[in-house]
Amino acid sequence: MFGRLGMKRIRKGLSAAIVGMAAILIFSGNAIALMADQIDRLSRRITVRIDGINPGSGVIIARENNVYYVLTANHVVRSPDEYTIVTDGGERYPLNYDRVIKLPGIDLALLQFESDRTYPVAEIADYNYDADSRHIFISGWPESRDRQFTAGLLVSEAYKLAFVKEPFSRGYDLFYTNLTGLGMSGAPILDTEGRVIGIHGMTEGQILYDETTRMSDRVLVGYSAGIPIRRFLQAGIRLNLNVSSGEPPSPTAEELEAISRYLQVPEVDDRFSAVDWTNRGNQLYRLERWREALEAFERAIALQADFYPAWYGRGNALSSLGRYDEAMQSYDRATQLHPNFYPAWRDRGAVLMSLNRTDEALQSFDRLIEIKPEDYGIWYLRGNLLMNRRRDYRGAAESYDRAIALKPDFIPALMARGEALFRLGNYEGAMVSVENVLDLDPELGEVWVLKGAILMELRRYGEALNAYSRAIEIDANNARGWFGKAIALARLNRDREARTAAMQALRINPGDRDIIEFLRRFRETDTDYR
């Protein structure tokens, strides 16, 4: 009686851990958000231009005597050649290529230049960047233009898994709505305190070649992407860095108004092409101006009816407006025109998944895997679909295995595989996944809850109690942790403590039927809970 009641409740809560696993935030007591124009002025002084084969940008992150250190994207200085670092004041410093440090497996490089002038050094911030509506800024030098400063929003972990177009590789794990262009690779990504949280490196898009005009055009698709500064810090390069860890406060209404001035989209008119209108639509879509985005995509289609990126963008805008049937028609049109157009299949599958149209979503994901089997995000989403909609835990575990094989440190897939194996009764296998997660991040409360549930099934009640207690230490409002602790205490015949823990779980989650039933039956007889 006790085992079925208690474990049913724990199982019910475990699925919340599948998407959006996040580290515990470290708060700073003196965090102060800056106005956008202040960050603009600050970032101008720390941003440099890198002239070379592929012009790019960078940020000054350290100084030792007369040597300054600039962090940039590795692909900016990929090939040995002559490069010049240009500061905001126009001073030019030749780059000694022999001193370039390229980080293995990550698209980052550390450059040096010598000067007896005084240049400001950026402050670096390392915290959990995954949050809804977190505003960020990018300061960089587009080709043949003055420095550009743009505002945008970070894409959350759960959203990027479903909608970001490319598998994350070479350290790219930040996605955002900021408008960026060629030449801005290596630019600093800054938070609302003006601290560097990452390095910009790419914008999702495609180069289209017109056989008639023999011209190439770049079509924007999706978002911009960068590498979190944590990946640089983990490399262990010894420098005199200015690093902080506090999460920035939420912007005030006045600060949001200041940010909005940096969210403008360039106008286009009838002289422009389908590519221009599609790019405008993408830019408006990023800013959640969906009706205007839809109008731009439809202008592109009116100019070129077979322009599949515009049909794809139209599908995204219609989906965001809640017009799902029309969105599906647009995605289908895009895939008819270009059967291997990966973004349309991906977004189609994600939208169908959110609409609980399981079979159709699975068909889209399977098509995606045919096109790009190395996308671990799709394997992960496919696993979620099988586990949560079809209760096919074995199939889900196999999909998670494929995701983990492609990205061994992918915590959401490790956690989800642990749950799938738990539901299959493979407790030893589930424990292996749990320990893998804890090796990567021991501060995830939900993984301790899962560990407690596994230990309960193995009748290792004392260890289970320790796991639930650890979950509560991490988050005192973890209702599943408190309820699991109550069950473990009851199994250990510590009835008074069990009742107290269950009452705390009920305070956090009032009306929970399982907890209420636990307490009701607890009052009737203690023996049912041993």
Task: Record the SSE blueprint.
Elements: H1 2-14, H2 36-46, E1 47-51, E2 56-64, E3 67-72, E4 84-86, E5 92-94, E6 101-102, E7 109-114, E8 124-125, E9 135-140, E10 148-153, H3 157-163, E11 174-176, E12 188-190, E13 196-210, E14 215-228, H4 229-233, E15 243-244, H5 253-260, H6 274-286, H7 290-303, H8 308-320, H9 324-337, H10 342-354, H11 358-371, H12 376-389, H13 393-406, H14 411-423, H15 427-440, H16 445-457, H17 461-474, H18 479-491, H19 495-508, H20 513-524
Structure, explained:
The chain is α+β, with helices and mostly antiparallel strands. It contains 20 helices and 15 strands. The chain has a seven-stranded antiparallel beta sheet. Strand 9 (135-140) and strand 10 (148-153) form a beta hairpin. Helix 12 packs parallel to helix 14. The chain is globular. Residues 1-30 and 209-216 have low confidence and may be disordered.
Give descriptors for this structure.
single chain, 530 residues, alpha+beta, seven-stranded antiparallel beta sheet, six-stranded antiparallel beta sheet, 20 helices, 15 strands, disordered N terminus
